[in-house]
Amino acid sequence: MPKIAKDNDFQTVITTFDTTPGTCQDLLDALVDAYSAFISKQPGFIGAGLHVNDAQTRIANYSQWERREDFLAMLRTPEMRERNRKINELCKSFEPVMYDVVEVFD
Fold first, then answer.
1. Is 24 contained in some domain?
2. Where, by residue number, does the polypeptide cross the bilayer (predicted)?
3. Given this model, what pLDDT does residue 106 score?
4. Which residue from 24, 26, 40, 106 puts its CA 20 to 30 A from 7's CA?
5. Phi, psi torsion values for 85, nearest 5 degrees
């Protein structure tokens, strides 16, 4: 489960996917499969969440990793490279960006 805290040592990655209502569910299915079958089992994985806007034109993914290198190593695996090629076909674009948590409000 993701842990949002200002003073953590985790690598936070937020990925946004631009999609269409016609391909949103297919993209979600591909992402759920990637997380359940592969990504969640990779070294350094902490947790993730998938979010969909009400128009089904954008998916946001929040994931956390013990280290930046763990996330990058997962991306470089042959399996994830193949999955990302298929994911790319289901959306207009996607961009993973690494972030640091600077503040949390409860």
1. yes
2. none
3. 77
4. 40
5. -65, -40
Is 28 a domain residue?
yes
How many whole angstroms separate alpha carbon 96 and alpha carbon 50? Answer: 13
Integer Cα distance of 49 and 28 in angstroms: 11
96's tokens: 């993973």
pLDDT truncated to tens, each residue of the chain (106 aa)?
A: 677 878 888 899 999 999 999 999 999 999 999 999 999 999 999 999 999 999 999 999 999 999 999 999 999 999 999 999 999 999 999 999 999 888 888 7
Q: How many structural domains are present in the chain?
A: 1
Distance CA 23, CA 59 (A): 11
Length reported for the chain: 106
- At residue 104, the pLDDT reads 87
Contact between 30 and 89 (Cβ < 8 Å): no
- Residue at 106: amino acid letter: D
Give the gyration radius of the chain's Cα atoms. Answer: 14
